[in-house]
UniProtKB/TrEMBL annotation:
Keywords: Hydrolase. Coiled coil: none annotated. It comes from Neisseria perflava. PANTHER family: 4-HYDROXYBENZOYL-COA THIOESTERASE FAMILY MEMBER, NOVEL THIOESTERASE SUPERFAMILY DOMAIN AND SAPOSIN A-TYPE DOMAIN CONTAINING PROTEIN (0610012H03RIK). GO terms for molecular function: fatty acyl-CoA hydrolase activity. This is Acyl-CoA thioesterase. CDD domains: 4HBT. Pfam families: 4HBT_2. It is an enzyme of class 3 (hydrolase).
């Protein structure tokens, strides 16, 4: 069964020198930063960034992350992070593919899962808040199930 994609988002950046090792290859831990930067750009695009999440009474910690390194990224390389938002009702799950922005060569695949946690009592929510659902539905590529 094919997964449903609620919406898609892309983000481009250039690999800075401080993200690479002595061989000018991106250190593996910095890919997490690229995912976070892309996710923040997506959240800003729907008006539901981390500050707004807090105003709505929730934090959204990462509860699961998976990365598969296919090819290394290098200093100065332009990369594109393509995001598929694949779950929005019980959690926020995003599948990512990182590409060389110029050649479209696939570099990394990843996924993250975030769950809403109430700031008032610290309890994880088993259904995402209505404010989140309303925000994500504003994304121009949103497709309902």
């Amino acid at each position: 069964m094919k997964k449903h994609i609620y919406c898609r988002h892309s983000f481009e950046t250039e690999v800075p020198f401080f993200d690479v090792d002595a061989m000018h290859i991106v250190w593996h831990g910095n890919y997490v930063k690229y995912l976070e930067t892309a996710r923040c750009a997506f959240l800003s695009s729907i008006g539901y960034d981390y500050n707004e999440m807090g105003r709505q009474g929730y934090s959204w910690p990462i509860v699961q992350m998976n990365l598969k390194y296919i090819r290394p990224a290098h200093f100065g390389q332009k990369i594109r992070v393509d995001m598929d938002i694949v779950e929005i009702e019980s959690c926020l799950r995003i599948d990512y593919t990182i590409y060389d922005a110029e050649t479209n060569e696939k570099l990394t695949r990843a996924s993250t899962t975030q769950a809403a946690v109430s700031l008032s009592d610290g309890l994880m929510q088993f259904q995402t808040p209505d404010s989140w659902l309303e925000a994500v539905k504003r994304h121009p590529t949103f497709k309902a199930v």
